[in-house]
Every structure is written in C-alpha cells, then in structure tokens.
Design brief:
The chain is α/β, with parallel strands linked by helices. The chain folds into three domains: 399 residues, TIM Barrel, CATH 3.20.20; 59 residues, no CATH class; 77 residues, OB fold (Dihydrolipoamide Acetyltransferase, E2P), CATH 2.40.50.100. The protein contains 19 helices and 25 strands. The strands form six sheets. The protein has an eight-stranded parallel sheet. It has a five-stranded antiparallel sheet with strand order 11-12-13-14-17, with no helix packed on it. Helix 2 packs parallel to helix 4, helix 5 packs across helix 19 and helix 14 crosses helix 15. It is globular, with a radius of gyration of 24 Å.
C-alpha cells in the first residue's frame, strides 16, 4: 500500500507572497479558500511572514481580522499555520521579549493552530525564547532549519554537516517542538543534499518525529527535491494551487500528484475536486496583475539565491519606482553580497538584506553605501552568521553606520532598548490618541510608522489589479493630492497608470504633473526634469534614488546646517535620509509625504 503523504496548502500565504508580493485583499480569496476546504484540504498556511506587514503596508487591512476570517471560512478543525522569524517574529526588525511573547498570544487568540518558526542565520539562540512562547501560548511549534545552496565556489556552511550541526544545537537547547521543518525558501538546495540532510535528521530524532520539507520551484528542481525528501523519510511537504503555484512558488498539488503516480507514495486527495477548487481560485484572482517573473523558472537563481517569496515583492517595488530595468543587474550583484555577508540563509529578513545591498551596489556603486539592515547583520545585531563575514565589509559597515560589531544576543539588545517593547508601543498609541489594545501594540511594534498610519486611518491601497476592459470606468480627472489607479488600453496595449499627489506613474515611470482648472492637465514632464533653479543662489536637493517620501522633516523657511536630515525616502523597504548639502534656508519644497519620486527628482532647495 502506498504511503500517504501529508501536505500543507501554501496558496493563501506563501502563494500570495511569491506571486503577488503578498498584496491580496481578503474578500477576494475567501471563496477559493472555501472551495479548497470543500475539496478536502484541511491544512493551510494562513498568515504570518510577509502576509502580516503587507496587509497594513499595501492592503489597508488588519491582519488579525484576516486571520479571523480565515478561521471562520476554513472551519474549526483545520490546522492553520503561520510563519514566524524567531526574534523578528513577523517583521524585518528583531523584537524585545515582551513583543515576542505577545506575538504568540495574539496569533493563538486569532485562530491559529501552528507556528513554523525559523531563524535565517540558523542562530539557535534566536529560536529558544520564541519557541518557548509559542508552546506556552497553546500553539504547536514547528521548529526550522533553513536551507539554501551557496553560490558556486563557496563553502563552509549549507551542507549536510552544517544542517546536522544546527539540528543538534536545537536538540541540545531543549527547544520544545511538535515538528521539525527543513525550509529552502530559494529552492536552490541540491536534491541529493536534501536527501542526505533529512536522512541524517531521521536518525537523530525520535522515531515518531514529524518531519516537514519546504521548497520553491524557482530553480526548477522542486519536484525532484520533494521526492528526495520523501525517500529520506519526510512526512509532509508544501504544495500550492494555481494560479499561485510553480515558478516562484511551490509546485501545484496537481503536479505533485502526477509526479507520484505509480510510486510508493500518494497524496490521497480527490484530484477532481482539487481541479474544481483551482478553477474557483483562478476566477478569484483574475483581476490581479500577474508578474511574468512569478510564473517562470530562473536558471540563474543558484548563483544568486533570491527566494520566490522575496523575488516578486522586490520586482513589484522596482516597478513602482520605475527602475525594473535594473533588476538583472541587482540579481547579478546579489551573488557577491551573499559571498561576503556570512552565508545567512536567503530567506526573509536576510534575503531582503541581501537584495537591499545589491540595490545599493547597483544604484550607488559597489559597496559605496552599506544598507543599514545588511550592515547590522554583518556586525552581529541579528545574531551570529554561519561563517564570519568579509572583514572589509564589516569595516565598511562599522564606519558608515557608526556601530561597533557585537556578540550580544539580539533579544538582550532589544530588551535594553527604550524604543522597543510593549511600553514603547503603548506610548506611541497614547500620543496619537489611538485605542491601546494588545493587537494595536503589536501592530505598532511590528509595522512601526506604517502600522501607525494604518491605525490612524491614513493608509492607502498599493495592490495591482487589471480590471476587465468593459467594466473599467472612465477615468475621473484626478486633482492634486488625490490617489487613484487605472488601467488604460491604447491600440490593444494595456498600460498601468497611478496618480498620487502631484505625481503620475505610467508603467512604472514617474512624472510630475500640474492641473489646469479649465483646459485639463498640463503635459506631463519627466520627474527628473523638475523646474530648474531660477538663480545661482539656490542649491537644488535631488532624490538619490527613486522611492516614496516617508517623512518631510523641514518646512519652507527653516534654517538647516550641512548634513541635517531634510526628508526620509523609502525604497526597497529601506529608509534613506536626504541630507542638506550645505547650510542655509529651506525653500521650494515640492513633495509631500506619500509622494512617489523619481531618481534625481528635485525635492527642495537650499538658499
């Protein structure tokens, strides 16, 4: 008799992250979830990871409300699993111990069953307290060893010996767990290495230990890797549903069912009902923009291991900033960033750190500007990297960030930081006259300024939909300061247009516009061609990179010194300060908070 293989359906969490950059509205996918439940699927990935922050950043939704709706739709008996990042929980920053505990309590309160808990550096110290909190909250804990393949020519970590050592450290630390997962977010682990790793783990662990393996199709070897994991003794794998399957995501249930036909394994599903559920899901998602890179296998990924879940999130941001043409260069630059960064596994948040540094190396020149998160990682502020980072990069990070390397565990650093923790978040809520609840405290701690913006009712939608041409309303004339998105078809070609503030984005290219009351809008001019300085007495201050204005820190007439921060731009999830090039008086501020700006666009002047 064939062995029944369990699988978790990742379509509604990792699927959304890997295909749509995690930007999917809850009401749009609930019918597909209902159909998947009716098809007999009862184990779902239901939140966490990027699907926590993204709901506040881009969807103007509350992630806790989403989890409640997920539980209501999936039913009381479904195993609903979320993803956590050890001391980072569901953010890119590490957290204090009281926020780590609150994370587990809130996810239990809002209907979750299991938390898959990993540390991207495989620093087991980052899993001890978070694992304890998960179990004490009454949740099942799936502890994780993170995997990837190092770029060719690298060695020193990410082989079977390294993973065996990491698992032994987990066991020695006596972290409570209900299952062990080996997670390959970039889909680059060589199948033979997957086999050897899980074979050894099966020998190390108690006989009845539940072993789960996770990978992506990004590098084209996921089905082979899953078969290797099963042959080595894994009990469960992760699969998805079209249109969120294959490419940057997990293999489709239909694909794996087909691959296992006639073998010693079976998925034990009603495949016809699964096909019906996929048709419902495709209909639910038909209006969403499907990035072409989300559906493709990328043979170069082993050289620059970008996870499927980060790949489309980053390309979405590149499109938003009008620099998608830089993407191939950034992927190529990532190989060196991984080689010199200490071999942290390319999974969030480390994958984002890698891409942010690659972004800076392309936009500013190699190693001219250290991305703060990457710099903090090589300096030890997220824990111990698998191998020592390149000393030259460590020196650059220390000099540019004005930080000394540290070996103090992140949780100790955060517990000593007065700007982190429950009390700090409560203070922010009180200062903004917002309700103080456990949920709101966690939202502010995990999402910071964007979480606060959401709670104040000021968040804007950042999703991409392609409305059917017949149903598309005639574009209303936008007014300065309005936010709107349209899809325009000209001669059979579709164009994406977004208005925000005094900017218009056309297919990712940003322009500045002005509006005339009687004759309609003035012709759009490229943002980089902002109004020239009228005299030699003013020095223009231009954007160093494309991005969104996160904060404007000065007003017209303010006196500033050279080096003072004038604005904060956000690009690729980084906060980039814009400093005064000289002392003087601020004049001609042309942007406001939330405005999209282009590379070299004039922001203000110093007189």
């Amino acid at each position: 008799m064939a062995k029944k293989i369990d699988f978790m359906c990742t379509a509604f969490r990792d699927g959304f992250q890997s295909v749509y950059g995690a930007r999917v509205l809850t009401p749009d996918f609930l019918p597909a979830l209902e159909a998947a439940k009716d098809a007999g699927i009862s184990y779902f990935e239901a939140g966490g990871g990027a699907r926590f922050q993204s709901l506040y950043f881009y969807c103007n939704e509350d992630a806790f409300d989403m989890m409640d709706s997920f539980r209501e739709t999936a039913g009381p008996d479904a195993n609903l699993q979320t993803l956590a990042r050890g001391v980072n929980v569901v953010g890119l920053e590490s957290q204090s111990s009281d926020i780590i505990r609150l994370h587990a309590e809130m996810f239990k309160k809002h209907g979750m069953t299991t938390i898959r808990n990993f540390d991207a550096l495989n620093d087991v110290d980052n899993l001890i307290f978070s694992g304890k909190c998960i179990v004490e909250a009454g949740l099942k804990h799936q502890v994780v060893v993170t995997m990837m393949e190092l770029p060719p020519g690298c060695e020193g970590a990410h082989d079977a010996d390294f993973y065996e050592m990491t698992l032994q450290k987990i066991l020695d630390a006596e972290i409570p767990y209900d299952a062990v997962c080996f997670k390959d977010a970039s889909g680059t682990a060589v199948p033979s290495k997957v086999y050897e790793t899980i074979r050894r783990a099966r020998k190390m662990l108690p006989k009845d230990t539940y072993i789960h393996f996770h990978t992506h199709e990004t590098a084209g070897v996921s089905v082979l890797a899953y078969k290797a994991a099963l042959d080595a003794g894994a009990d469960a794998i992760d699969l998805s549903l079209a249109p969120c399957s294959g490419g940057t995501c997990q293999p489709d249930v239909l694909v794996m069912w087909h691959a296992l036909r006639g073998s010693e394994y079976t998925l034990d599903v009603d495949i016809d009902k699964v096909r019906e559920a996929e048709e419902v899901f495709k209909d639910c998602m038909k209006d969403y923009f499907l990035p072409p890179e989300a559906t493709a296998v990328e043979p170069l990924i082993p050289w620059s291991p970008m996870p499927g879940g980060a790949l489309t999130a980053n390309t979405q941001m590149l499109r938003d900033n009008g620099i998608m043409d830089k993407y191939p260069d950034m992927i190529k630059a990532m190989s060196e960033v991984v080689r010199r960064g200490g071999y942290g596994t390319s999974v969030t948040p480390v994958s984002q750190f890698y891409f942010q540094q690659s972004f800076n190396n392309v936009m500013f020149g190699p190693w001219k500007k250290i991305a703060e998160p990457y710099g903090k990682m090589v300096l030890g502020y997220f824990g111990k990297t698998p191998v020592a980072p390149d000393p030259e990069v460590v020196k650059l990070a220390s000099e540019q960030l004005k930080l000394e390397p540290t070996t103090t565990p992140p949780i100790e650093l955060n517990d000593a930081d007065p700007n982190k923790g429950v009390d700090a978040a409560r203070k922010i809520l009180e200062e903004n006259n917002l309700p103080v609840s456990d949920e709101n405290i966690f939202i502010v701690a995990a999402c910071r300024d964007k979480g606060l913006t959401f709670l104040k009712g000021e968040a804007e939608l950042g999703i991409r939909k392609v409305e059917p041409e017949a149903a598309a309303p005639a574009p209303a004339q936008p007014q300065p300061g309005e936010a709107a998105q349209y899809n325009l078809t000209v001669n059979g070609k579709d164009h994406f247009i977004a208005f925000q503030g005094n900017s218009v984005t056309v297919d990712g290219n940003v322009y500045q516009v002005s509006m005339a009351a009687a004759d309609g809008p003035a012709p759009a001019q490229p943002a980089a061609a902002a109004a020239p300085v009228s005299s030699g007495e003013k020095t223009p201050v231009n954007a160093q990179m494309p991005g969104v204005v996160l904060k404007v820190l000065v007003s017209n007439g303010d006196q500033v010194k050279k080096g003072d921060q004038l604005l904060i731009l956000e690009a690729m999830k980084m906060e980039v300060p814009v400093a005064a090039p000289k002392a003087g008086t601020v004049t001609d501020i042309t942007v406001e908070q939330g405005a999209q700006v282009a590379n070299n666009q004039q922001l203000l002047s110093i007189a």
